[in-house]
Amino acid sequence: MTRVIHTGDTHIGYQQYHSPERRRDFLDAFEQVVEDAVSEGVDAVVHAGDLFHDRRPELRDLLGTLSALRRLDEADVPFLAIVGNHESTRGGQWLDLFENLGLAERLGREPRVVGDTAFYGLDHVPESRRDDLTYDFEPHDAAHTVLVAHGLFTPFAHANWETETVLSESNVSFDAVLLGDNHAPGVEEVRDTWVTYCGSTERASTSEEPGRGYNIVALDGEVDIRRKSLNTRPFRFVSVELKEGEGVERVREQVRQYDLTDAVVVVEVTGEGEPVTPASIEEFAAERGALIARVTDRRELETDSSLDVSFADPDDAVRERVSDLGLSTAALDVDETIRASKTPDSKVREEVRSRVAALADEGDLSAFEAAEAAETDADAGEDSETDAADSTEGDGTADAASAEETPSPPDETAVEAVAAAENGRAAAADAEAGADAEPDADATADGDADANPDAETNADPNPEADENADPNPDAETERDAQANGQFTMEDF
Hints:
- 27% of the residues lie in helices and 18% in strands.
- The chain has 13 helices and 18 strands.
- The strands form four sheets. The chain has a seven-stranded mixed sheet with strand order 4-3-2-1-11-12-17.
- Helix 1 packs parallel to helix 2 (59-74), helix 5 (248-255) packs parallel to helix 6 and helix 9 packs antiparallel against helix 10.
- The radius of gyration is 22 Å and the shape is globular.
- Keywords: DNA damage, DNA repair, Endonuclease, Exonuclease, Hydrolase, Manganese, Metal-binding, Nuclease.
- It is an enzyme of class 3 (hydrolase).
- This is DNA double-strand break repair protein Mre11.
- One of its GO terms (molecular function) is Y-form DNA binding.
């Protein structure tokens, strides 16, 4: 029997709402998963991608992740993972760094046997590159086989990757497929194979109202998939429909009914009542102990459908417009560098010139070809909330199909600082002090579900995944050709 934790979409480093507390929440959730793995005595932790929210995680996020991985290593619990679209870089991956430190293993074409189960990995691959992809894996002699992959797979919502194609074209028969990218947990059966999303470990968007958690997967002749909840920060979701003559006092009355202490509060206003100033409600919630409050007046959105923006989501509106332009990979990279990266303003021009020149030198002319504008989900202008660099393949609140962007390599300063920290040197603090601040985009909140961290139940086969797919662009997954047997862009 093999029993593993299936987790993913941890998005460590996401400073949601520009809040340091929310940034810490994402790391805390991952640390809970690690502690559960140790206390439950599972055979491995399997991570299905998007360990980090950013391809350039800051030093504090790297060190926090290293600390958690050391906890697993000390307990002899392997950490098996693949690369998601959020963290993918054109050069070496952060996961490779952790593997070199002996704290993680990157899954790929070669089997990694745990107990009586062989695990394989399929990193995120942009939709435009999948037609030439072959699903050839090295043979194994284990009793069970599992594929770990990152993307939006059928039959779940917003799918652009055919699970049947992967299973039918693979030279290995799988008992289960463990997925990441869609933030809604779910279980389906495809070609006699169980296919499951573990969901995100923290709420990354307003659509992620249900409690967060992960899967516990056991293989012993049959496949058993169960949900385990995480104890994450409370979210209070307040919906107020104003009748004619009602206004701000009615909204405050509804907000008063909730315990707002240290909570993220989202207020949605609809109806025919008087205009409501979001700032007044947000201030009222803060006075009652809320960590963060966001107010969206849906009547503003309905009045001007051509500009779906409220006081709560101006960055989201920008992301949606950019995704509608159908920009080329190179153009998206320039946009990300100017608007959302950690590059100092004084170095933006030099950085843009360097990135464009690199693409030209590689002879990758497809990077300069315009992409089709992304098809936007019905909720895209309302609930999407991710880093300003995020634009596409989304959480039900972002676009279901996306344009590609060209990732940049890991921050060399951070890499050197991590290596120094691992060797016990004192360079880490200096490197952190020199790191640029991350301008993560503001976002909105969701949900009111306080999860019971000890509740373990059967996975819900109908998780309404259409509102919870991963909130990030279809980042181009190009890796080193010698990266331990993983799928790389050189494969096609």
